[in-house]
């Protein structure tokens, strides 16, 4: 069975998915997400709760790619330790 992108996106956004409420969370927590966006090193920032603890390194890279595509290469070059 082959997986096609057009099938993967609706599955990823399904009600049982952790991604289902990402857009809502961003819109309800704009200041927290803006801090990540405005950072000179967003790949090292702690993501707003609860995302920091729920995402693995690849999923985190997807989020950084969505927010700051110019910084995703920094993230891909090595593990990013969140700033505390």
Question: Structural class, from helix and strand content?
Answer: mainly alpha
Low-confidence stretches: 1-8
N-to-C terminal Cα separation, in Å?
A: 43 Å
Mean pLDDT across every amino acid position: 75
Secondary-structure element order, N to C: HHHHHH
Observed structural traits:
84 residues, mainly alpha, 6 helices
Describe this protein's structure.
This protein has a domain of 57 residues. 52% of the residues lie in helices and 0% in strands. It is built from six helices and no strands. It is globular and about 25 Å long. The N terminus is likely disordered.
Topology:
Layout: H1 5-12, H2 22-28, H3 30-38, H4 51-54, H5 57-67, H6 72-76
Question: Summarize this, please?
Answer:
The protein is mainly alpha-helical and 84 residues long. Helices cover 52% and strands 0% of the residues. It has helices at residues 5-12, 22-28, 30-38, 51-54, 57-67, 72-76.
């Amino acid at each position: 069975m082959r997986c096609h992108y057009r099938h993967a996106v609706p599955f990823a956004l399904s009600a049982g998915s952790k991604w289902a409420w990402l857009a809502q969370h961003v819109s309800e927590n704009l200041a927290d997400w803006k801090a990540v966006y405005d950072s000179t090193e967003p790949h090292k920032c702690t993501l707003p709760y609860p995302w920091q603890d729920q995402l693995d390194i690849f999923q985190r890279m997807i989020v950084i790619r969505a927010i700051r595509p110019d910084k995703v290469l920094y993230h891909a070059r090595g593990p990013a330790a969140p700033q505390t």
